[in-house]
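Subject: Protein record for review, amino acid sequence with backbone structure tokens
Why sent: The fold of this protein is of interest and is recorded here as tokens.
Notation: Tokens come from a learned vocabulary of local backbone shapes, not from coordinates.
Attached in line: The record itself begins immediately under this heading.
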Amino acid sequence: MIDNLLSFLTYEKIYYIANIGVIPCWLLLIFFPTHVITKFFVKSIIIPGLLSTAYIFISYQIYITENIFEVFNLYLGLEELYTLFSNEAFLLIFWLHFLTISLFVGNWIASDSKIYMVSKIFVIISLITTYFTGPVGLVFYWLIRIFYSKKINYYD
């Protein structure tokens, strides 16, 4: 049974499951940010827990099949980063990392926008931008938030 599960969990399938799995979370954040389902799945540890389980599984696969310490080569230059990303396991790990952090940032934007009563249209634009470009959406939200909070706060 475990062999069947391991043969099912290819990197390609993990990629598709993770990508398709976060889309409902983003839709919940955009359209129903205060709903109980959003709170249960998106604002809890459930989705990050599932993504981190995939992260740990892939890390283990790298550990038993390759040199996991290759990841430190990414600090040596752009060419080494390119070489590291040519390995689909390392590329998938970084993609899971991006999905998890972006979802966390989107969750923070949705929660923070309630505190400062940011207009829903700006929150939606910020969430969509964060989904596609990560930090750009966060900076966009932060700039909008300055006008709603009437102060610049660097450490929230």
Notes: The chain has one domain: 2-149. Residues 2-149 form one domain. The two ends are 47 Å apart (CA to CA). The CA atoms of residues 13 and 19 lie 10 Å apart.
